[in-house]
């Protein structure tokens, strides 16, 4: 139990340091740390890791800053804004509480550096670190989008 807590703290420290210094050369290090945290959580929990778990962790890691849950109806518009480097401000003004996140009808727009910034490609692609059905895009460290498809 204590060994698990120590390792969890170590992995979180890796992620916090990477988020503070924003350097994509650390992508492999971030991936290993996040994957290890997932493994530790799977060992400790009774059920699978859900998309909502990922969103709550992202919110916790960023201390609630820059994590915006929005209706999935805005996906095309958000992706267009991201692709043209436009601001997603109009979309994130209409946010939903993170605790109410539902992967079937919501997506997440991250406007600050996050784990998604490291683990998503600059073009829309699968983001397997967040589950088999996860899709993401992160053209910049301060702009990423994460959602799940059925």
Describe the structure.
With 150 residues, this protein is α+β, with helices and mostly antiparallel strands. The protein has one domain. It is built from six helices and five strands, in the order H-H-H-E-H-H-E-H-E-E-E. The protein has helices at 2-21, 27-44, 51-61, 75-83, 89-92, 115-119; strands at residues 67-71, 106-110, 125-126, 134-140, 143-148. A five-stranded antiparallel beta sheet has the order 1-2-5-4-3, sandwiched between helices. Helix 1 (2-21) runs antiparallel to helix 2. The longest helix has 20 residues, at 2-21.
Sheet with the most strands: spatial strand order: 1-2-5-4-3
Question: Uncertain segments of ≥5 residues (pLDDT<50)?
Answer: none
Largest sheet: 5 strands, antiparallel
Global structural class: alpha+beta
Mean pLDDT across every amino acid position: 90
From the N-terminal CA to the C-terminal CA, the straight-line distance is 36 Å
N-to-C order of helices and strands: HHHEHHEHEEE
Count of helical stretches = 6
Helix content: 40-55%
- Gyration radius, in Å: 15 Å
How many DSSP E strands? 5
Outline type: globular
How much beta, percentage-wise? 15-25%
Number of domains: 1
What is the topology?
Layout (H helix, E strand, L loop, with lengths): L1 H20 L5 H18 L6 H11 L5 E5 L3 H9 L5 H4 L13 E5 L4 H5 L5 E2 L7 E7 L2 E6 L2
Antiparallel strand pairs: 1-2, 2-5, 3-4, 4-5
Main attributes?
single chain; 150 residues; alpha+beta; five-stranded antiparallel beta sheet; 5 strands; 45% helix
